[in-house]
Automatic annotation (TrEMBL):
Protein name per Swiss-Prot or TrEMBL: Sulfotransferase
Region Disordered, residue ranges: 81-117, 332-351
Membrane-related topology note: Single-pass type II membrane protein
Subcellular location: Endomembrane system; Golgi apparatus membrane
Family matches, as InterPro entries: NST/OST, P-loop_NTPase, Sulfotransferase_dom
This enzyme's EC code(s): 2.8.2.-
One matching Pfam family: Sulfotransfer_1
Binding site for 3'-phosphoadenylyl sulfate: 139-143, 220, 228, 345-349
A Gene Ontology term for the protein's cellular component: Golgi membrane
Catalytic machinery residues: 139 (for sulfotransferase activity)
Length: 382
């Protein structure tokens, strides 16, 4: 009897063990079934959006896929003649190591990535030499053009003027590249330094970096430009001599003093001749400073076409500020007020004797006509 009871208890234990295993298998099967059919998406996931997973979930593949969707299509800058005197390849860029994610810097891309639950960093992207440079001219409207261009999601630009090719060339190209913002595939790196246009060594130095660089020159009536230049200097140095005493060698002869920088900068044809020794005319875009004020969207359309960009910047981005006398950018999303250039822009000009202005117009006329012929554009300054 005792042994029979032991045997029953032993069999009951085996049955109980099998039942436990059976129910465990049922629970496991049910769990996998629900996961495969998507019901496990209610479970929280760290850092990532809830997703239905088919098989193994590869974080890198998923991030590549989403970032790939965010990346604008790559566009190659057109006009690629032979690369003469080129000693630094435009392809000498910091490349992502194998297996690394593509680096990104676009603010809009960052926001979009964050909305997908992906952590992003401002260290994404690659520092490249600029593919396009605004090389001139001072007081022509270069700051306005750069600010208008920075609205475009495919343009990344240095805010301050680097002055690399005229003042800091001895610091080396690597120093220059490190000044650049990080960009993504399909984005254009830009900078603006207006004094490049009038610097004798600048064209050869830019070509040494990359002879395929696109060059934008914002030009303005040289007489108005000279007065604006003088006005800016006068605001910093109130003891400056009068405009006419600087512009004329002496008042009796009326000869123009071309050694004064405010006058010399306006000799656009002479400066362009220097640049054309290193770059073909097809690499230049000449932007009218007057039309940038009267029709900013129209001029920006030309600039975007020249850079191979989609026409994103348009009429809807501008309004005319009557106080300053030039267009401002409409209120950006999330901002409480519109964006206008600083107080240093749109200063009232001092009164200049009309006979001095006329002497300057007569002086510039042949240079203007020569510039019209060279650029293929009549800017109507005469």
């Amino acid at each position: 009897m005792g042994c029979s009871g032991c045997r029953v208890r032993f069999n009951f234990g085996k049955v109980l063990s099998k039942v436990s295993v059976f129910f465990t298998m049922v629970l496991i099967f049910t769990y996998f079934f629900y996961c495969l059919t998507g019901f496990c998406d209610s479970a929280p996931r760290t850092l990532y959006s809830q997703q239905a997973l088919d098989g193994d979930y590869d974080i890198l593949d998923d991030r590549r896929r989403i970032l790939g969707d965010l990346r604008p299509p790559a566009r190659l800058l057109h006009d690629a003649p032979s690369q003469r005197n080129r000693t630094v390849s435009a392809d000498a860029e910091q490349m992502d190591a194998p297996g690394q994610l593509p680096q990104r810097v676009s603010d809009s891309a960052n926001k979009s990535a964050q909305s997908n639950g992906i952590p992003v960093s401002n260290t994404f992207g690659t520092k490249r030499f600029p593919q396009a440079i605004i090389i001139g001219v001072k007081k022509g409207g270069t700051r306005a053009l750069l600010e208008f261009l920075r609205i475009h999601p495919d343009v990344r630009a240095v805010g301050a003027e680097p002055h690399f090719f005229d003042r800091f060339y001895d610091k080396g190209l690597e120093w220059y590249r490190n000044l650049m913002p990080r960009t993504l595939d399909g984005q254009i790196t830009m900078e603006k330094t207006p004094s490049y246009f009038v610097t004798k060594e600048a064209p050869g130095r830019v070509c040494t970096m990359n002879c395929q660089t696109k060059l934008i020159v914002v030009v303005r009536d040289p007489v108005t430009r000279a007065v604006s230049d003088y006005t800016q200097t006068l605001s910093k140095n109130p003891g400056l001599p009068s405009f006419q005493s600087l512009a004329l060698k002496n008042s009796s002869t009326g000869l123009i003093d071309t050694t004064w920088s405010a006058v010399r900068i306006g000799l656009y044809a002479k400066h362009l001749e220097n640049w054309l020794q290193h770059f073909p005319l097809s690499h230049f875009l000449f932007v009218s400073g007057e039309r940038l004020v009267s029709d900013p969207a129209g001029e920006m359309g030309r600039v975007q076409d020249f850079l191979g960009l989609k026409r994103v910047v348009s009429d809807k981005h501008f309004y005319f500020n009557q106080t300053k006398g030039f267009p401002c950018l409409k209120k950006p999303e999330g901002s409480s007020r519109p964006r206008c250039l600083g107080k240093s822009k749109g200063r009232p000009h001092p009164q200049i004797p009309s006979e001095v202005l006329q002497r300057l117009r007569d002086f510039y006329r042949p240079f203007n006509h020569r510039f019209y012929q060279m650029s293929g554009q009549d800017f109507g300054w005469d």
